[in-house]
Amino acid sequence: MLRSFVMSQRSSSPTVAPRIEDLIARRDLSAVFQPIVDFDDGAILGYEGLIRGPAGTPLETPYALFARAEAEGSVIALERAAARTCIEAFAQLAYEGKLFLNFSAGAIRQLADDRDGTFVMLRNMGVDAERIVIELTEQSAIPDVTSFLPAISILRMAGAQFALDDYGTANASMNLWVRLQPDVVKIDRFFIHDIACDPLKFEAVKAMQHFAAASGARLVAEGIEKEADLIVVRDMGIGCGQGYFFGKPHARPPRAVADDAREALRAGHIAVFPEATRAVSASPSGGMASAKMIMHAPALPRHATNNDVLDLFNRMPNLHAVAVVEQNEPVALINRRAFMDRYALPYHRELFGKRPCMLFANASPVVIEKSMTVEDMAKLLASDDQRYLADGFVITDQGRYVGLGTGESLVRAVTEVRIEAARYANPLTFLPGNIPISSHIGRLLGNDSGFYACYVDLNHFKPFNDQYGYWQGDEVLKFAAHVLAEVCDPTRDFLGHVGGDDFLILFQSEDWRERAQRAIHVFNEGAQRFYAPADRLAGGIHGEDRRGNPTFFGFVTMAIGCVHVEPQTGKQLHSSEDIASVAALAKRRAKSEASGLVLIGFEESEALLRGRTAAAVD
């Protein structure tokens, strides 16, 4: 019984995987290739060669192969065997283009040390060195980059190019980019996957793009799997890409890009960059605000006397206060008016002039750290502690005194920063503001892309706002933003918030009209829930028109005026401001239409624009 159990266990146990050196000796490795595509013409510029172990075994995947090689101490031997296998298979395929091969730093050193043998092997296999791109894998830590540079130079002198693989992860760092000066940089798939909807990934790749332009490196976006990500990467100006969207690794990969991928590359619409639609906070770092309100002013030490304070105020008549510091940290604030009023009293100077200045100082002044956010500054404005209005406040940098501020300068700085922020993103809906709107229109015009500029306005919003209050009015605006966002295709249609109850949609979707009609219907139905039951039954509210006359106003409804900007003709409308202005004129017509939707064509747009310009001149 025991014998049969043991025998059954042996028979069911998995076969022990062969050693890596045995696989190499038996030439039991195979190559697959993944295309790398040039976005400009849709041609395949080359292939990345990848290794596979015996099919159907635990060592079939590259990860399993190299994990076993790491355990056996034969990683470099496996890399060289993998390269030889890929080169042989690529030569047999007789494909055009470059061959990208992965190597660790140690393997690259060996290639350079044996450069004559390496390139003799290439010639014998039918692949010229000029067609080879050597990729430094991300797992390769290089303790001494200086000593590694000659190896790269030797390979380049032989005609090969050098690439930094999986940039942005592991050991692929900015330091290596600067010092190794690669010909090609392959952006890791982490940054490319979902870049169409991730503003942080977009910003990271944009930074890589700027540095690539400065260094002369060619960028390849890895991991492209979706059309939306491809369009964003294409429109950013990155020239090449690789990923499942173009083809999975295969022993006989395609010689040309598939039709669907080629159509995507030629897509007429331009991407809506995620930077333009992200929820930008209306409270950026307070550095900008503090810079606007800081007043550089001298401070006095704790042991200073009241006579010292008086002398300082007499020397600097515009100084509203003086800070008292100890080891450069503020401990008190002396307000000029309060101090001088005391000194005007009889015998005050004689009695208190030589006494410590802390006697009449505010020992708990309002202190604003230079890095404080604008939102925190705004909370200070609304707090019960209003001492800053009279005394002003102290500004510090990491706790150390840097200057003074006044209540007036605080209000002005917060207001200016918020107005500036609202130009980029509306603080209520977080939709893009006027600057991103103008930027996107400029991109559309610059690419000769046809689109529909739709100006959205809410009828009867002001009387609703007057009766129900700003809080409820804000809820209606947020509901309108939600409805409009729901009908937009985020990869094609740009939605911005001009301000108040005005929105602008730049449609590239072909079914734009159905989308606009759906927005009007959904909003008009949903907006009624913001009214009190009695007003819903009455069909609206009583109020006053702009002239103060009693008027009955129906429910808040949506109106959309559209202008069709056709390809090759949009530039004749001169600018983004002109297009927005003509769309706003169309919106005025839509407000009086029962359907709430009006479209005007290009010729009428020009006429309206000429009429508006003539009126302005008159």
From TrEMBL:
Pfam assignment, any one: EAL
Entry-linked CDD domains: CBS_pair_GGDEF_EAL, EAL
SUPFAM superfamilies: CBS-domain pair, EAL domain-like, Nucleotide cyclase
Domain GGDEF, first and last residues per copy: 449-604
GO MF entry, a single one: cyclic-guanylate-specific phosphodiesterase activity
Lineage: superkingdom: Bacteria
Domain (EAL) ranges: 13-263
Entry protein name: Diguanylate cyclase/phosphodiesterase
Organism encoding this protein: Paraburkholderia diazotrophica
